């Protein structure tokens, strides 16, 4: 199945791209997706413990089971001042 991953803020700037299409097996989780993304974009791996993952309009965890056509947002934690 094809999953579109969108990158935001400094993560987008870090890798120089707004989105990436990733092919995964049926039943894959966000964890599986991230492993593929990190393999293609290793500069993102250091942010693994702090990124937020969104699917549609809600935040999800690493065990979220992906569905064909999902659009996943990967973003840094929100900081305020």
Stretches where pLDDT is under 50 for at least 5 consecutive residues are: none
User: Mean pLDDT, nearest integer?
Assistant: 91
Give the % helix: 10-25%
CATH class: Alpha Beta
Task: Indicate the structural class.
Answer: alpha+beta
What is the number of domains?
1
CATH homologous group name: Beta-grasp domain
Number of strands: 5
Strand content: 25-35%
Query: What would you call the shape?
Result: globular
Q: Do you know the CATH architecture? A: Roll
N-to-C series of helices and strands: EHEHEEE
The CATH topology turns out to be Ubiquitin-like (UB roll)
Q: Termini separation (Å)?
A: 40 Å
Largest sheet: 5 strands, mixed
Radius of gyration: 12 Å
Number of helices: 2
Spatial order of strands in the largest sheet: 2-1-5-3-4
What features would you describe in this structure?
With 81 residues, the protein is of the alpha+beta class. The chain has a single domain, classed as Ubiquitin-like (UB roll) (Roll), CATH 3.10.20. 22% of the residues lie in helices and 27% in strands. It has helices at residues 9-15, 30-40, and strands at residues 2-7, 19-23, 52-55, 58-59, 71-75. Strands 2-1-5-3-4 form a five-stranded mixed beta sheet. Strand 3 and strand 4 form a beta hairpin. It starts with a strand and ends in a 6-residue tail after the last strand. The model has no long low-confidence stretch (mean pLDDT 91).
Short description:
The chain has a single domain, classed as Ubiquitin-like (UB roll) (Roll). It has two helices and five strands.
Give the helices and strands, then pairings.
Layout: E1 2-7, H1 9-15, E2 19-23, H2 30-40, E3 52-55, E4 58-59, E5 71-75
Parallel strand pairs: 1-5
Antiparallel strand pairs: 1-2, 3-4, 3-5
């Amino acid at each position: 199945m094809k999953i579109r991953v969108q990158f935001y803020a400094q993560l987008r700037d870090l890798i120089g791209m707004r989105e990436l299409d990733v092919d995964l097996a049926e039943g894959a989780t966000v964890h599986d997706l991230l492993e593929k993304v990190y393999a293609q974009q290793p500069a993102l791996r250091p942010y693994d413990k702090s990124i937020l993952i969104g699917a549609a309009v809600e935040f999800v965890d690493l065990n979220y089971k992906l569905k064909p056509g999902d659009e996943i947002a990967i973003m840094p934690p929100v900081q305020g001042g």
